[in-house]
Design goal:
This protein is 31% helix and 23% strand. By secondary structure, the protein is of the alpha+beta class. It has a domain of 80 residues: RRM (RNA recognition motif) domain (Alpha-Beta Plaits). The strands form 2 sheets. The chain has a 4-stranded antiparallel β-sheet with strand order 1-2-6-3. A two-stranded antiparallel sheet has the order 4-5. Strand 4 and strand 5 form a beta hairpin. The radius of gyration is 26 Å and the shape is flat.
């Protein structure tokens, strides 16, 4: 078995496919589906039931060569994505989010009254700084 680098893709779409027990990876262009399945099974100790691959074409990028020079255009490199479906019950911990227990109260949440106080203090601070600028005629530059 040939070892290849498998990089998890962490986007909103990739998190959405997790609900269907499918995980997204960025893999080398030369990797086959069988090689991807073997490497995922060995690296994460899971059973792979299916692999779907696609080649993402690189976007064209415009750039400038200077103030008077004509702009140029280049393309980013192409890369391959692999969507790996796992056996029911298997999960990859790289993608797992921390579960927050609903029974425990969250100490970081502010009450509506505390939020109101914070916004009031911010507004008063802003108003005071504007009044100071008007009296002194200064706008902050010396």
């Amino acid at each position: 078995m040939k070892l290849i680098s498998i990089i998890p893709i962490t986007t909103e779409k990739a998190y959405g496919t997790m609900l269907k027990n499918t995980y997204a990876f960025k893999v080398p262009m030369s990797a086959s589906k069988q090689l991807i399945a073997e490497n995922v099974e060995n690296q994460f100790n899971v059973a792979v039931t299916g692999v779907t691959t696609l080649v993402q074409k690189g976007k064209s990028i415009r750039f400038s060569r200077g103030r008077r020079a004509r702009p140029g255009e280049t393309t980013r490199t192409d890369f391959k994505k692999a969507y790996v479906t796992l056996k029911d019950g298997d999960k990859i911990k790289v993608f797992d989010e921390e579960q927050i227990d609903a029974a425990q109260p969250d100490e970081t949440k502010e009450t509506p009254k505390e939020k109101e106080n914070v916004t009031r203090v911010k507004a008063e601070t802003k108003k005071a700084s504007l009044l100071t600028r008007r009296r002194t005629g200064s706008r902050g530059d010396k």
